[in-house]
Amino acid sequence: MLFIGICGASGSGKSTLADALRERLGDERCQVLQQDAYYRDHSHLTFEQRVKLNYDEPGIFDHDLLLEDIQQLMRGGGITRKAYNFSEHRRDDKPDEIILPKDVLILEGIHCFHDKRLTDLMFLKLYMQVEPDICLLRRMERDIVERGRDVEGVREQYLNSVKPMFDRYIRNYIQDADVIVANGGKNARIVDILTGYVQDELSSK
């Protein structure tokens, strides 16, 4: 199995690139996991308390569980699907859905380079480099349309947690990358190059 990590700011096109690679490689050969599915479970807190948590800092993710699932897939075993309800700010796992290992596993997330135990397992590390104002606009559109947030809530979250965490952590992950991807996940040329590289590596194995 080839394990690929895609890191970068919220709204930088990580999911778009991951989905493009999966489409080119084929669903039968490529599996995508979102780090967002591995937010720690805070269901013991009230909704008002959950809303106030910082969802952009590294410790909000269950890195141990994510590592355990990645290792299980790399060993050839299946895992249960993890999920997160962004409207309710709580875990929403799917224990009846089993994810089986495929030739290529892609993990995308804002802090997927944070845990060295994970990065040491990665065959290829990609970092999305996109202008912050573009990321903000994309995040606002996603959070309002897909996650039921309002403009004021998105604005407060950006100022209080998104930008500070980007400046403190996420922008520095570029140092861990093997490849820096400019212009977001719709960069057709980089998709062609990465697909060819991965296919060549799979053929050699």
What distinguishing features does this structure have?
205 residues; Rossmann fold; five-stranded parallel β-sheet; two-stranded antiparallel sheet; 7 helices; 20% strand
Describe the structure.
With 205 residues, this protein is of the alpha/beta class. The chain has helices at residues 14-25, 47-51, 63-74, 116-119, 132-145, 151-168, 188-204, and strands spanning 2-8, 30-34, 79-81, 84-85, 90-91, 94-99, 104-109, 124-129, 179-182. The chain has a five-stranded parallel beta sheet with strand order 2-7-1-8-9, covered by helices on one side. A two-stranded antiparallel sheet has the order 3-6. The chain has a two-stranded antiparallel sheet with strand order 4-5. Helix 1 (14-25) crosses helix 7 (188-204) and helix 5 (132-145) packs across helix 6. The longest helix is centred in the C-terminal third of the chain and has 18 residues, at 151-168. The model has no long low-confidence stretch (mean pLDDT 90). This is Uridine kinase.
Q: What is the overall silhouette?
A: globular
- DSSP strand count: 9
Q: Helix amount, in percent?
A: 40-55%
SSE pattern: EHEHHEEEEEHEHHEH
How many whole angstroms does the radius of gyration measure? Answer: 17 Å
Question: What fraction strand?
Answer: 15-25%
Largest sheet: 5 strands, parallel
What is the CATH superfamily classification? P-loop containing nucleotide triphosphate hydrolases
> How many angstroms does the end-to-end distance come to?
10 Å
User: What is the correct CATH architecture?
Assistant: 3-Layer(aba) Sandwich
Number of domains: 1
Keywords: Kinase, Transferase
Protein name: Uridine kinase
